[in-house]
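Q: My labmate handed me this sequence with no annotations at all. I'd like to see what the chain might look like in three dimensions before we decide whether it's worth expressing. Could you predict it?
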Amino acid sequence: MALILTSESFADGEMLGCKHILSETYGFGCKGDNLSPQFSWSGTPEGTQSYALTCFDPDAPTGSGFWHWVVVNIPTDVTALELGAGDPTRGTLPKGALQVRTDFGAPGYGGPCPPEGENVHRYIFTLHAVSLKELPVTADTSAAVVGFNLHFNTLEKASLIGLYRRDCKDCD
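A: Here is what I predict for the chain of 172 residues:
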């Protein structure tokens, strides 16, 4: 059985709702609720010691994309993350899980907020089945270094793509 990632918050290829869009407090001009989506998974491959979940926007106008969320060391007895689990102040991540610095400069979920006038951006949420119980990273490790470690220690992965374009007037 293959690793399967699902979400009650959005379907693969669907537009992300305003509750998942970056909040005004970040200063990028969006007015969402900045809640990380809910996720569930099944089909864990043999040898999995932990999970990691990432969110990456390959369409960001940076030349290197933009990391919106990086969570590692999720224990194998966990098969879901609740809505809003990416807020570091809520303390709702499973014990042992670690949020790592994103391209916003701090750990935690930072929702979509592409520049005005951009086409639709893809937000790729990827669950990694990891062969290590803990990746050798800290909360201040860059997403690129986490990605390097995941490249060599991922047994299998599954992704969902959420979409967003800034002309979503119901978020303003």
